[in-house]
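User: Second chain of the day. Same drill as before.
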Amino acid sequence: MTITKNKYALSAWDLSELLAEPSEQEISARMAEVEEEVRAFEKLRDLLQAESLTADDVTEALRRYESILRKAWTLAYYAMLWFSADTQSTPAITLQNRMQQALTDIQNRLLFFELWWKGLDDARAAHLTPDAAVEPDYAFFLQDLRRTRPYTLDEKSEQIINLKDANGITGLMTVYSMLTNRLEFTLTVDGEERKLTRDALMSYVYSPDAQMRAAAYQELYRVYGDESKVLAQIYNNRVRDWWNEQVQLRGYASPIAVRNVANDVPDAAVETLLEVVARNAPVFQRYFKLKAKWLGMEKLRRYDIYAPLTASDRTIEYGDAVELVLDTFRRFDPDVAALVQRVFDQKHIDSEVRKGKRGGAFCATVRPDVTPYVLLNYTGKVRDVATLAHELGHALHSMLAAKHSILTHHPSLPLAETASVFAEMLLTDRLLAEERDPLVRRDLLASAVDDMYATVMRQTFFVLFEKAAHQAILENASQDRLNELYMENLRHQFGDSLEIAPEFQHEWVSIPHIYHTPFYCYAYSFGQLLVLALYRRYQQEGDAFKPGYLKLLAYGGAARPEQMLREAGVDIADPDFWQGGFDVIAGMIDELEAM
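Assistant: Same format as last time:
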């Protein structure tokens, strides 16, 4: 397609909607307002014990609770977003630390409300639950709170954990971010030695030059290898803290069960997903063997899995990428595109690469009534366009669910990836449909399979490593043993399809998710395989598919995942459902082989 000159340029975001300026006067005034509301809420403690308490009283308490969260989270997100934009900024770090402490204090002082609710017997809770026909979000929030009733401690213990976390494990995770985001990497490009951020360095693993791909990975793990003792010790503390609090104190069945309960996905369904993915490792092993043949290599190296099939250093200007993605949303549904457009119109996107900026990409939803903020590090590669579509898919999901309360707005993690992965598939499908050159079509299809490897297989094997690593650390395993476990994980994943260089033993210390949100990564596999099934239905049903899909997104987190998916015709406990996703991937590989 021909794209005309457009209005979009790489930029930082504008956070002024959240806070006009981070002056002490403004922050103190906002915090004073929150403090006043918290004090008033604390006075409800005695009222909640009254026999005369009604469902209307509980509704009013929830409105006040919600107001406190809206105001406190606005400041906390401002601090997080400012820190993400510049992790080396002393004022940003100071404000983030201050807000973490303030949130911990607020959380502790509001804790009595959730603990009171979880402590009620079922009959009393049913009597006090707001009418779901009138206040559906409040009713669902209260019902959902009771799911974690078996894992909740007494108020004093919960307060102690909150206080210790703020200065302990949460602080340690901030240190991990600061340590890793400050890292610089050196790579010789076109005879010139360059200092690069991680995101800029990783763009070279997609290079058509085999030596450049190897050099990029070698430099990545040289630097992380130098830091690995400290990073491994941080992980050791993360794992022990997770076990001590979640399993020993709270009584969760296992470390991963904590995430499953938070996601509201049964342990058995998650185990089925992990087993089906592991069993299908040969699907991608076959692909990597084919890819070696297409690249004229006897066997791929781990350095080569994202190698392009043709020597194209094609780049896409940021403005053109934005126009392409917005137009793709527009073709799916003009109303959807209008929502996504708000991210740009309101300058809620930070797209440029800067030293000290957080790596990777994310979408942050502050409140239902605030257009989400999107961070990415755009380097001009075709994959960056897919990342843009992915993060804007997240933003769309949030905006479609904007009618819900801040208490029920966020979808659970496995469903959180639905709109983002679907947006990527819309983009890929469009590019494939418009491309007439068979070699370029092969590249696009191979790139889509590469991404599915990264989203399905790779993410699941991260979780399989986490399960093994958590157990090993509790058995006092050394860093060397963890490195060995990671290499065993890679050998299981890749079989005899490629060669794995020894420096990949350090890869695990470079994976932020296993530090910040243990066992998070299966949500990507869940989301991708779910979307493959949904997208196949979209291709079959066309416009008739859209209302049900948009309804699924509009739920946000205001219904249980199993209910939402059952309405969409999905049984997450059925191995055949997950296998169906792999059948689609295998079909794509068949199509590639036939080209």
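Residues 530 and 593 are 25 Å apart (CA to CA).

User: Great, on to the next one.
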